[in-house]
Amino acid sequence: MPLEVKIPPMGESISTGILAKWHVKNGDQVKRDQPLFELETDKITSEGNAEGDGVITLSVEAGAEVKIGQVVALIEAGAAAAPAAQARPAAPPQPPEAAPAAKDAAPAAPAVRSPAVRRLAEESGVDPGSVEGTGKGGRVTKGDMISAAEAPARAASTPPQAPAAPPAQPGARQTRRKLTPLRQRIAERLVKAQHDAALLTTFNEVNMAAVMELRSKYQEDFVKRNGLKLGFMSFFVKAVVQALREVPSINTQIEGDSLVQNNFYDIGVAVSTEKGLMVPVIRDCDTLGMAGIERAITDAAARARDGKITLADLEGGVFTITNGGTFGSLLSTPIINPPQSAILGMHAINDRPVAIGGQVVIRPMMYVALTYDHRLVDGREAVTFLVKVKQEIEDPSRLLLGL
Length: 403
Hints:
Layout: E1 3-6, E2 16-22, E3 29-30, E4 35-40, E5 45-49, E6 54-58, E7 65-67, E8 71-76, H1 84-87, H2 115-124, H3 142-157, H4 181-196, E9 199-207, H5 209-226, H6 233-246, E10 252-255, E11 258-261, E12 267-269, E13 271-273, E14 276-278, E15 281-282, H7 290-305, H8 311-314, E16 319-323, E17 342-346, E18 349-356, E19 359-373, H9 379-394, H10 397-401
Parallel strand pairs: 12-16, 16-17
Antiparallel strand pairs: 1-8, 2-4, 2-7, 3-6, 4-5, 6-8, 9-19, 10-11, 12-15, 13-14, 17-19, 18-19
């Protein structure tokens, strides 16, 4: 019995997706745990792996919408068969004088068919000789027979469509491509957040000199001990945890007609990927040290960019931090990640003149923005929260003391 390749379950809320890419070709020899395809859903992008060794026959084309549990390929145990043209020694060349009689010669013997192809031919009535083979040497594969047998049904059930647009020419004024499920989902969530919540943003600026000096002083020792660099994000995560403790109303959310107070600190960190923005959640940040937070962020970001993030990695956050400064953003108003009540936006660090102790000095400054749901959070609480974050970053020793 061939091994069925199915679309794996992705979570209760996901029922369909787009089979975005095949990593193998029809008739390829595959090995157990080898990545076979890339699946895009409205929440995550993941890979499907082979559950056994054998020759794969694809039954769904890349770009097709598929359902969870749908069979998209079959794996036949055993090595790939050699093409019929290579299985027999080549016939000796005919002498030149025999060439004119070639048109009267008997037709060539039919190609050797695999047992699976012969069985499908008997069951479906499809003549293998009328099917264009995609296997090696033009061999008709089981997948070719399945596609040929299903073609009439697909044609009957598919409404007429306009001819496909020709491929874009160099210098074309426009190109057109379908939105990915993830991009559609991002668009829906952003619009819904702005429609459902009463969004308001408050701003402040942070002197980054103390954190930058601390990183510079201890970076080498930190790398030697932990095997990774100390970044800015871990400081902001710890600062947010302290601020959430001081202003617990930020750590709330609305569920129906109830107000839910969260007493844990799972912080989402926005990661930009080729597929779109993802927000993996770093669990129990109040119990993690700087190294633990940096390691968790590095791991989550790598898995998000490699398409290996899971749905569980994205669920359950109580607050989100996004860093537009990575791309040079000076100031922005981030949008909350429902059902959370607030999001902190970090921005670029620039040297600016500031007044300190009655003197104008140059310091590395960062604008920070807190967007919050005014249904849950009052302006006084939002400003208090952002000032708390500012205090923690400008005096990072407070983070070590838990103040």
